[in-house]
From TrEMBL:
Species assigned in the record: Agromyces badenianii
Pfam families xrefs: D-ser_dehydrat
Matches recorded under Gene3D superfamilies: Alanine racemase, D-serine dehydratase-like domain
D-serine dehydratase-like domain residues: 308-406
Xref: PANTHER family: D-SERINE DEAMINASE, ZGC:162816-RELATED
Full protein name: Amino acid deaminase
Chain segments annotated as transmembrane: none
Taxonomic lineage from the root: Bacteria, Bacillati, Actinomycetota, Actinomycetes, Micrococcales
Domain of life: Bacteria
Length: 421
């Protein structure tokens, strides 16, 4: 797949002393010029977030193959990384588009030439509606947005009445759950919304959407039963939508925690009509990165997917035998779905490590991590601790450039991933 001009231009961006974690010598060089010097991760300053190139390639291949084998398309959630270069990796691997969460994210994706976007949210802001109306003048651009109330539909109609709309806006009826997040509360309400969308002069009823991940936080029998029940109700809504709609349809669900249940529940409907005009779309965004925390514990693909991100922080204080303070904290690493976990220690990031047994990170401040152990910690001031991280969705927003190492034991930096938060 040809790389979009704007994506290629990222190699010409000039690095700055303000770019956290980069070596001082990188300042003033373009990304291309800096990578041409074959930098090593050991040069980078701590705190640091780094990615493993081999793990990224493996994960992109694994999740794409897994979807294809089950009759699913993949439109990974781009909000996880907000990195067009990483989106492109999955598009090149066979993803049919990118999922996003806000109008601003959609605008970023369009700047980088993403031609198929699923907005997993409602769109009611007049400025956002006007922007999308303008983008729909591109006949090669496909865009789908969610609705979950009559008020949302009316707000969209008001906004679109003020602009020139080249074609109707494709809308998916979102099913929610009582006590959950967004979405119509139950199949009967979703059916009423489908009827209202079908009657709209500016909207096209184009399918059914939902997010099962908010119904559970583990793989307990109660959580799995709740997810299965919800997905079965999504199929009920799909039948209603199919009876009302005119044209191709989408059914989309699937975060990174219960994607196996999505495939399981949807399988009979997919098998019954393999060419029945419905696209079955999974939106798993964390699968490209996986992690050493939340998703390692809940993903059914753990073992097939490999953690592709790692943190590095330096020992700056050793005030007690069982307490070490590291120079990375909430400003640098995710902590909302579990604290970082120590893996090993070395002289520098990416260097050969010795394992750290019995130690754990017990708290984070803005710029410190508390590493504790019941026994004396064998760490010297200045050593670097590598950290397994949990929840990639809150890792990338803390960094503008993230180094990608070659992987397979090599710490050579082969890419700087640019984020757009």
């Amino acid at each position: 797949m040809q790389r979009h001009t704007r994506l290629a231009e990222l190699a010409d961006e000039r690095l700055s002393p303000a770019d956290k974690g980069l070596p001082a010598r990188a300042a003033g060089l373009t990304v291309h010029e800096f990578l041409a010097t074959q930098p090593r991760l050991a040069e980078f300053w701590t705190p640091l977030l780094a990615l493993d190139g081999q793990a990224l390639a493996r994960n992109a291949s694994v999740i794409q193959r897994w979807c294809v084998e089950r009759g699913l398309e993949l439109m990974p959630h781009g909000k996880t990384t907000m990195s067009p270069a990483l989106w492109q990796r999955q598009l090149d691997a066979g993803a049919t588009g990118i999922t996003l969460a806000t109008p601003g994210q959609v605008r970023t994706a369009r700047e980088f030439g993403v031609a198929s976007i699923l907005l997993a949210n409602t769109l009611v802001a007049p400025a956002g509606l006007a922007f999308i109306a303008g983008e729909l003048a591109d006949p090669d651009f496909t865009f789908h947005v969610w609705v979950d109330s009559v008020e949302t539909i009316e707000a969209m109609e008001r906004g679109l009445s003020e602009v020139a709309l080249p074609r109707p806006l494709d809308v998916l009826v979102e099913l929610g759950a009582h006590g959950g997040r967004t979405g119509a509360r139950g199949a009967p309400e979703a059916a009423r919304l489908a009827e209202r969308v079908a009657a709209s002069p500016v909207l096209r009823l184009a399918g059914t959407a939902g997010y099962e991940g908010s119904l559970g936080h583990d793989r307990s029998p109660v959580a799995l039963a709740a997810v299965r029940s919800y997905l079965a109700e999504m199929l009920e809504v799909h039948e209603t939508v199919r009876s009302l709609a005119d044209g191709p349809l989408i059914v989309t669900a699937g975060g990174s925690a219960y994607l196996d249940l999505v495939a399981e529940v949807f399988a009979p409907a997919i098998a019954a009509a393999p060419d029945g005009g419905t696209r079955w779309i999974l939106r798993s965004g964390a699968s490209l990165l996986h992690d050493d925390g939340f998703y390692r514990g809940i993903s059914p693909l753990d073992g097939l997917l490999a953690p592709a991100m790692r943190g590095y922080a330096r020992v700056v204080s050793h005030p007690e035998p069982g307490l070490v303070l590291l120079d990375g904290g909430k400003r640098d690493f995710p902590y909302d779905e579990g604290l970082p976990s120590p893996i090993g220690a070395a002289e520098a990031p990416g260097a050969t490590e010795r394992p750290l047994a019995g130690a754990s990170v017990t708290a984070l401040n803005d710029q410190h991590a508390y590493l504790r152990s019941a026994a004396a910690l064998p760490l010297a001031i200045g050593e670097v601790v590598s950290l397994g991280l949990s929840h990639p969705c809150t890792a990338f927003d803390k960094w503008r450039f993230i180094p990608v190492v070659e992987g397979g034991g090599s710490d050579r930096v082969v890419e700087l991933v640019r984020t757009f938060f």
